[in-house]
Structure formats: C-alpha cells, structure tokens
Amino acid sequence: MNNIIHVGLLGFGMAGRLFHAPFISNVPGLKLKKIKTNRIESIELARQRYPTTGIVATEQEIFTDPEIDLVVIATANPSHYSLAKAALLAGKHVLVDKPFTITTQEADELILFSESQGKMLTVFHNRRWDSDFITVRKVLDNSLLGQLSEYEAHFDRYRPEIKQGTWKEENLPGAGILYDLGAHLIDQALVLFGLPDEVYADIKTQRRDSEIPDYFEVQLYYKNQKAILKAGMLVRENGPHFIVHGDQGSFVKYGMDVQEANLKAGSFPTPAMVNWGREPESIWGKLHTTINGQTHIGNIESETGNYTNLYENVYNVILGQQELIVKPQQARNVIRIIELAMQSNSEKRRVAYS
User: Fold this and answer.
1) By CB neighbour count within 10 A (0-12 exposed, 13-18 middle, 19+ buried), where does 49 fall?
2) H or E segment at 243?
3) Nearest-CA neighbor of 22 among 343, 282, 324, 306?
4) 343 bridge partner residues
5) What does pTM read for this prediction?
6) CA–CA separation, 71 vs 85, rounded Å?
7) Which residues contact 119 (CB under 8 A, 6 or more apart)?
8) What is the pLDDT of residues 265-295, one digit of tens each?
9) pLDDT in tens, 189-215
C-alpha cells in the first residue's frame, strides 16, 4: 500500500497497549512507527509485541519526526490538552484518548488551534463501536419501540479495593469515574439524542479511603424523554447494560461488548478474525414490542462491534476520502455535560444546558 500514515503513540499503559496499538496495527494503511514510554515493563512489552516499532523516552522524539503524520495521545487525563497542543504545533494530526480535555475552555482552544493548523483533531470515543450500542442504535433507527420515553445505560464494575500506583486513583483534575466511564456513556447518549435541555447529577465517593468520585447518576432531560446514565465501582451483581422504553415496547440488554474482555485476555484483532466483536447469543438483547399490530417477543442478534472502524475512519480522513465520524465539537460537548453534571451535584438541582 502506497498511502502509509506513520503513527506515534504517546503512552503504553492500559489504554495504549490494549485500546490503541492493536487497532492501529489492524489498519493496513497505518504504521506504528514510535511508542513513547518510560516504564521498564512497558518498554519490554512494546518491544515484544511491536519489534519493528521504535521505543522512545520523550514526546519530542515523536513531535520532531518528519515521517510521523498522526500522534495518538494515550496518557494521563491532565496531560491531554498540553500534549495535543504541542502535537498540533508540530504539524501533526491528533487523536486524543477520552476524555478529550478537563474543561470546555481547553477543548475550544484545541479545536480552534487545529483549524488554524489545518490538521485533523479527534477523540477516541470507541464505545460508539460497541456491539450492543450499535444494536441499540439499530432498534431506535428502525422505530421498533415507537415514541421513546426513557433510555437507561449502565457501565458498572466491582472494584472495592483502591488500586495502588495509578494516577486514576489520585485526586487530580480529570480523575474519577465521571471523566472515565461517564465520558463513554455521555457520548453515546449525545449520539442518540443530541444535546439535552437540562442536566441533573448525583456524584459520590463510595469506596472506603477513595480520593476520587467512584459513582454517578447523570440524567439528561429532553422534551419528551429522559436519558439515565449510571456507573459505579461497587456493583458486584450487574443489572442490564441498556434499558430502553417506548410507547410500543422495550429493549433490555445484559452483558457488555466483548472486545475489552478479549483484549485483556490477550486476544487481538487481525484482518482474518471475522468473528472479532461478535457477542455470544447468551447476552443478546430482548425486544418486546408491537409492530403493525402484532406483538413480538424475543432476543435479537447483537450487531458486530469493532474499534478498528474508528481508526479506519481516521486513516481515510487524513487521506481526504471520508468525513470525520468523531468530531472534536462532539467530544467538547461531552466535557460540557461533565461540567454541568458537577455543577448540578454541587447545587443539588437540575441545570439548563448552556
């Protein structure tokens, strides 16, 4: 392939090694040229998995490389803004892991800067390519539930112990479950329904000795419907992942997209893996609805998920062959919802979207 886009990856922690490097490598036109990491164990793993990729100790070794076209930022949340700005200043296209930034002011500045530089800027909202979320979109796009009344999405985990040695458990700007899992749930809701009229949130720290918020419920209010988004770290027995109700029926889905579990188990996508992102029948969602006067009850097969599609889109955008799917303004709106959720929690009231 002649149109090779060289990629520099900043960070090889969990995000870099599980959610970015495997999917960059799965796009034939993308070449992972350099990885920046300083941890001994990460260096050894990167060399083992990507023997032809250069391992570097500083961001500048990526920013100043004239062959690198795209910089992927998979570092701690507080560094996203400064590193993205530096990469754009170096004339690179930029993909930032979620959350985009800590504040909307930072997001707005990066958007304007990318436009002035004439470079692509996007955010890794990969959960748009979850199998079950794609299935929910299909159910709604085909009006299988009639007029929607309520949408509820959960991203729950059971992690009662404080994990040591990670910035994610430290009281830093952008830390906590709302910026982490909340960014995914908010992005999905905005994709489905657009910007809300009002936002309400309850944000808590539930685990003993935790320094960060580890539970939230965010409610997005629209004219005739409501979206409820919840995540917590003390949910040992998971309920449904999606619960969607309309005036003609309901769709309920248990279980999560399988890609993260497969990645953690050491399975990585390749072009030959036609079943990558396919959910087992045991966790397909249940549809109970009325269509043309007839009642339908039963499971519907989950669509196939694949985070590779996000990177394929990025590759084609850089070549000028597609429109960007995850637009930076959309990612900026996710940060705005997070800000309003924190305001709502502090003031104990609904706040208007502004």
Assistant:
1) middle
2) strand 242-246
3) 306
4) none
5) 0.96
6) 11
7) 88, 91, 92, 93, 94
8) 999 999 889 899 999 999 999 999 998 889 9
9) 999 999 999 999 999 999 999 999 999
CA distance 134 to 7: 28
Which residue, 120, 122, 66, is CA-closest to 93? Answer: 120
Helix axes 328-347 and 177-193, enclosed angle (nearest 10): 120
CA distances from 232 to 68, 180, 205, 354 (A): 39, 11, 9, 27
Q: How far apart are CA 13 and CA 349, in angstroms?
A: 38
Amino acid at 304: T
For 324-349, write each residue's pLDDT tens digit: 999 999 999 999 999 999 999 999 99
Helices 177-193 and 131-141: crossing angle, nearest 10°?
30
| DSSP symbols for 55-105 | EESSTHHHHT-TTEEEEEE-S-GGGHHHHHHHHHHTT-EEEEESS--SSHH
Instruction: Judge whether 39 and 61 are in contact, CB under 8 Å.
Output: no
